[in-house]
Predict the 3D structure of the following.
Amino acid sequence: MSVSYNSIGQLCITCLGTGPQINAPCKVSTSNTIATCLEDDPIDGVVVTKGDYLSTVAIRGFVTLPYLGTAPSFGYCALAAAGNGKVKILQGAREFLVLQVDTAKKTVTFCL
């Protein structure tokens, strides 16, 4: 049996900016605009779709992203951007509720 949390409770907004890739963490860079998260940046959302000038960004709800380094722990875990569309554990970063970790695929499912 497979369990999926993707899109549950998801709240999305439309922003200017098409730099971040789909299914990658992003950050607010200027008024109404998102940018690609660099290493150690806080995660403001995850890109769901992107067009020529606009991107749809999930700012709430469950997402699954690849992680870098040590596997995140279950429950509340401090996560930040790792660069290249991944996340990583970073002390002092915002804490997210982690419900699923796949160490074989190196993915983590958490609630924004």
Q: What stands out?
A: Strands lie at 11-16, 25-30, 33-36, 45-50, 54-60, 62-66, 75-83, 86-89, 95-102, 107-111.
